[in-house]
Design goal:
It is a single chain. The protein is of the alpha/beta class and 230 residues long. The chain folds into two domains: 158 residues, Rossmann fold (3-Layer(aba) Sandwich); 66 residues, DNA polymerase, domain 1 (Orthogonal Bundle). The chain is built from eleven helices and eight strands. Helix 9 links the parallel strand 7 and strand 8. The radius of gyration is 17 Å and the shape is globular.
């Protein structure tokens, strides 16, 4: 049974995956690079600079910085207003907090996007702390952001689980010493998330909640039975 829960934000709590992909595609096209959206989906959730090194390997360091800055501006202007919370996200956080568990949000987003996300979730009363791009520049799968989250939780890594929608979330959590669980709302398959190390995978947070509460894998308790007995 876990005492602390570290939640990824984009794609896990908020429906923003396609918006992020399209804003990056727009920024790449502005710099003269045409990258299929199917290619960008492969790296959804990966650190932005690492993504660019993979999809436009000939781009210079300065060019990658400019593309990422363009992506941020395009995203905040054209896509952020349409982002909405995923169904059941706030309720899952609330349910964990009401049972005495600690919740931290861990995301490399910052600034206007992060403020907007917090307002959309409307769950500040149930969140112990946040670890965001303002705390650390390194995105997942680098484990340092999860490490910051663990320090803010104030518990041992073995008592915490990283909850995300991409294999990079899982890799970051496991590398930091925590467990990992996944949801399918980011577009990655159950097989991919399990291969990355997730002990449990579900369609969304509402379906994953029994696993988070029990600490059991996908062969664990029936959702409705567990929620009735918890």
């Amino acid at each position: 049974m876990f005492e602390g829960f570290i939640f990824d934000v984009e794609g896990t709590l908020l429906d923003s995956v396609s918006e992020n992909q399209r804003s990056l595609q727009d920024a790449l096209e502005k710099s003269g690079y045409r990258v299929p959206i199917q290619t960008l989906r492969l790296y959804s959730g990966l650190d932005g600079d690492q993504t660019l090194q993979l999809v436009v390997p000939d781009a210079s360091d300065r060019e990658r910085i400019a593309i990422l800055e363009d992506r941020r501006e395009i995203y905040e202007r054209d896509y952020l207003p349409s982002v909405r919370p995923l169904e059941g996200a706030r309720e899952a956080i609330r349910s964990l907090a009401k049972r005495g568990r600690r919740v931290v949000l861990a995301t490399d987003c910052k600034g206007a996007s992060f403020k907007r996300y917090m307002a959309l979730l409307d769950a500040a009363d149930y969140i112990t702390a946040t670890a965001c791009g303002d705390d650390l520049e390194h995105g997942k799968p680098d484990p340092r952001l999860v490490g910051v989250a663990l320090r803010k939780l104030g518990i041992a890594a073995s008592q915490a689980v990283m909850v995300g929608d991409t294999p990079y979330d899982a890799e970051a959590g496991i590398e930091a010493g925590a467990k990992a669980a996944g949801v399918l709302t980011g577009g990655f398959s159950e097989a991919v998330l399990e291969e990355a190390g997730c002990f449990a995978v579900a369609s969304d947070l509402r379906a994953l909640l029994p696993n988070l509460l029990s600490g059991l894998g996908n062969g664990g308790p029936n959702q409705s039975d567990w929620l009735r007995s918890a």
